[in-house]
């Protein structure tokens, strides 16, 4: 009797699980992000960080935080030894660009849409958990809208929003627990991420209207992804091979690419290439400067460290 009931229970659980994922895939067939996260949760096992030489998690957090900062400083110093060309430092577009000197004001409907599109994860720096914010969104919406608009209007990204709670994760499952195999995952406050998204949406629209994106850029663009980049490369290779041409593929892997961006060059590009001026340019300058982070390991954290990029 027990074996028969056990088999029945196993059968129905497997069928329910199969139906759940079948429906999930059908409902999210156009959302690659959700499909990827679901597949990752099923097939990728979370690797635990183990450092036997450390008995004090606070000391471990401090050493990991210092390692992340030193790595950026090392790569940055190596880049500083290279003399940039004139074309690299003063890149301009061949056509005229309509300047954008300020951000448009958001209404409560705009912010509600931002909240709906945002991740529901909470950060230790949030004054209240994100799920609770969502439940009370009707009450909090006017205050959140005002905070975002004040930041964009004045051209200032508040200092508390620049602090990141960093959680180290292994780059690859099963990799050795060594500092060089760790990737820093930054957690930011919910309202800071909403403000970032509000600024991005307006700058993205500005870039689209003025045709400012490079033709072959596949990241950070709607309807573009690693998939479209791979399809483009594969098509170029096959086309060249069909023409009896020799094909050479060069791949460049940049270490800490975003962390080592030169802020002076970036801000100059925003002005000269993208036509971003006034309070909008001031906002980016504030957003990039005076950022800090701390590393959390098993409920122990480092003191505030100063990285480069957000």
Layout of SSEs?
Blueprint: H1 2-27, H2 32-43, H3 57-80, H4 86-89, H5 108-117, H6 130-135, H7 137-154, E1 163-170, E2 182-187, H8 190-209, H9 226-242, H10 263-272, H11 278-288, E3 292-297, E4 300-301
Parallel strand pairs: 1-3
Antiparallel strand pairs: 1-2, 3-4
Helix pairs in contact: 7-8, 7-11, 10-11
Kindly describe this structure.
The chain is of the alpha+beta class and 310 residues long. It has a domain at 57-80 and 96-215 and 246-307. It is 51% helix and 7% strand. The protein has helices spanning 2-27, 32-43, 57-80, 86-89, 108-117, 130-135, 137-154, 190-209, 226-242, 263-272, 278-288, and strands at 163-170, 182-187, 292-297, 300-301. A 4-stranded mixed sheet has the order 2-1-3-4, with helices on one face. The longest helix has 26 residues, at 2-27. The radius of gyration is 24 Å and the shape is globular. 15% of the residues are buried.
